[in-house]
Write a structure and sequence with these properties.
CATH class of chain B: Alpha Beta
Largest interface: A-B, 27 and 30 residues
CATH superfamily of chain B: P-loop containing nucleotide triphosphate hydrolases
Shape of chain A: globular
CATH topology of chain B: Rossmann fold
Number of strands of chain A: 4
Oligomer: heterodimer
Shape of chain B: globular
Helix content of chain B: 25-40%
Largest sheet of chain B: 6 strands, mixed
Number of strands of chain B: 10
Largest sheet of chain A: 2 strands, antiparallel
Number of domains of chain B: 1
Radius of gyration of chain B: 19 Å
Helix content of chain A: over 70%
CATH architecture of chain B: 3-Layer(aba) Sandwich
Order of helices and strands of chain A: HHHHHHHEEEHHHEHHHHHHH
Strand order of the largest sheet of chain B: 6-7-8-3-9-10
Strand order of the largest sheet of chain A: 1-4
Distance between the termini of chain A: 23 Å
Structural class of chain B: alpha/beta
Strand content of chain A: under 5%
Structural class of chain A: mainly alpha
Number of helices of chain B: 10
Chain lengths: ~375, ~260
Amino acid sequence: MADLLSSRNLRRWLPWVLIVLAALVLPVILPPFRLNLLGRFLSLGIVALGVDLIWGYTGMLSLGQGIFFALGGYALAMYLQLNELKPGELPEFFSLYGVKSLPAFWQPFNSPLFTLIAIWVIPALVAGVLGYLVFRNRIKGVYFSILTQAALLVFFNFFNGQQKLINGTNGLKTSTARIFGELIGSDAMQRNLFWLTVVITVAAYLLCRWLTHGRFGDALIAIRDDEPRLRFTGYNPTAYKTVVFAVAGALAGISGALYTVQSGIVSPQYMAVPFSIEMVIWVAVGGRGTLIGALLGAVLINYAKSLVSEALPETWLFIQGGLFLLVVLALPDGLVGWWRQGGPGRLIAMVGWPPRTATYPALDLDPQVGAEQDQLERRGGGQG
Amino acid sequence: MTSTPMSRESSMNLLELQGVTVSFDGFLALNDLNLQLAPGELRAVIGPNGAGKTTFLDVITGKVKPTRGDVVFRGRSIVGRSEHHISRLGIGRKFQTPRVYQNLSPRRNLELAVRGPHGPAALLFGSLSSEQRDRVQHLLSVVGLERQAQQPAGGLSHGQKQWLEIAMLVAQDPELLLVDEPVAGLTDEETSRTADLLKQLAGDHTVLVIEHDMEFIRDLQAPVTVLHEGHVLCEGSMDQVQNDPRVIEVYLGSETQEDAA
């Protein structure tokens, strides 16, 4: 029992216990409106995880994640539009534009199985192909960012202009669609979606953890630190970047689908330029290169955004810009990086309480002490 | 090692540069460069600044394509192949300034460099064999970085980074090691240890060293090739080269610039 409660075990289990508790308790204590917001922001955390993979770890700043986010949202929304239609019926908006038969690319979305796969495979494929072409030509840095933003604009304009195919600028509504006979917008359904989001967020986090904790993750960091060096060691960075960009695309797609059903609509606005830049800001504020930072950044900033917008509309953009400046100037590793580097301690020290040092510096430098420390760590530590 | 390159048959050469010319917008960084390296050889390359030493390595490792001429490794032309391809064929390179992955620990730096499959799938689903693990551990102790093995390499001293990068090169286990200024910024003791290490590596590997430090090259006891204006000026032992009037003129100079160059 004492062993179970040792600090190592506690640190390992406590986060999971808290997550499960939160998932069970929050739906009871939060009003449906707040719960729905939390679910939406959690699903934005998934797209932030993808941004962290390609930007935080691999060092490529993509400003086009909105493409993949929206593709996932559209895939699910198209299925919901078709779901529970009577044979021969078309989704309502088609009649506005005089479309008499379902466009061919809508047909596969009759199948729930196809939709579940399409939500992440289509964005992953688009990202993979786009990424491969870009990375093969060794386009990186600011040119990569500009290219992804240009691609975003292309997709935005296409989706915005195609009324007869996907209802153009109006987007596709999901809140009035039904699944399993239940209205998607109903409180009960939204609670289920919240739980689903929690589960998928945890799964996405674990996937990213697996990708980044190991030699694959080391290779990503090596690409960020010194890509030519890695090439001369026999690695092909193009392959790594393509894989990571595709994974980030898939995560964005899943995120977009979850966000769509919880906000009730998918529209070309998901591919607006500022939204994709916001995704980068979440990761920067939370702490790039740390997965938990990406999640925290997405949830905290969006919650702050909704609270501020309720109280003082119009000021949010200034606050967001200020936050970004603060992070760039003062917290280059974001909130999580600041925390890990002893930021809170320093803040307290500034107010007047000096931090306590664990030992005398001279003791740290003594080779004899160092050797003994090594020995102890080897005996007690096992695999670090 | 003791044999000069001339005594070997050209067909046995591990690496051959045949009339390599590199032109950057009309400026000839390399001009009709010919050079042969026999297997197991240790060779030093010297030359004044701007002689084309680094371009010469860039051509061999695939970073720069020659305008004319051919680079033949183990009897096959490697011109036009990408860097990672050439590296996998067995050519490793250490850069002029130490280039290690700053945010990874020395151990992880070495684990990335260690010989083995380098594809994304291999890194995701495979794990290091016990042999590879032992090799990393052994190299860490050889370069004396066991205690720093878990800290980010960005915090290492300049000399430690140099050694870590040499260790990465050894971990890669290439047939041909191209070493660009391995002792720049090292202390005398570290310099002589580096010379010993390179001498040890030669024999099993072929080693080509580019260096400015004349004492170090004398320590290596290796044949010397002098580059000047992208061209091989002369080859021979250190004493022969130092007494060659052409070399004195272009490189060692009348102003006794032995170490300054």
